[in-house]
Amino acid sequence: KVLIDVPHSDLAEELAQSETKVQVLQDTLQQVLDRREEERQSRQLLELYLEALKTEDSVLSKVAEAEAAPRTEMDVVDTGTSSTDTSATTALSNQVLAALKEKRAPELCLDSQDLELVLKEDAAALASALGWDKQKAGALQEACDQELSKRLRQVQTLHSLRSTSKGKKTLP
Length: 172
Description:
CATH architecture of the largest domain: Orthogonal Bundle
Domain DNA fragmentation factor 45kDa middle: 2-118
Keywords: Coiled coil
CATH topology of the largest domain: Dna Fragmentation Factor Alpha Subunit, Chain: A
Structural class: mainly alpha
Protein name: DFFA factor
Coiled coil: 8-42
Helix content: over 70%
Region (Disordered): 65-88
Number of strands: 0
């Protein structure tokens, strides 16, 4: 880099070479630096792609596990107890309810299955379980819906990348 930045005439004088040869040398050095930068950027992009593939594989394996695992969901029965009894008003686990109450952006802390459960929940029951008004519970459900949609788009994008990369491997 230093040799590239030195003026042609100064470097030519120091090396006892013509300015033309020094210019060729500096151009070659610049090409080497450019190629190294391109290689560095390519490595970073490849690392990001591989990381995305790992993430996709883990998401897909979790989805496959979730689909294969037997569901332990229970029907919620209204026992006529007070509205402060969350087990009677919502099918959400205590852990999910705690995350919804305590976290600043709970939709980012929940996995996709929990986001789906929050979306399926009745807004009034959710508001009652959290001790919030219906409007705030509705806003939470909207944020969960947006986060779930974003995750699904990311998975679709990763599938598209994977199919594109597989297609390129088969080309001669």
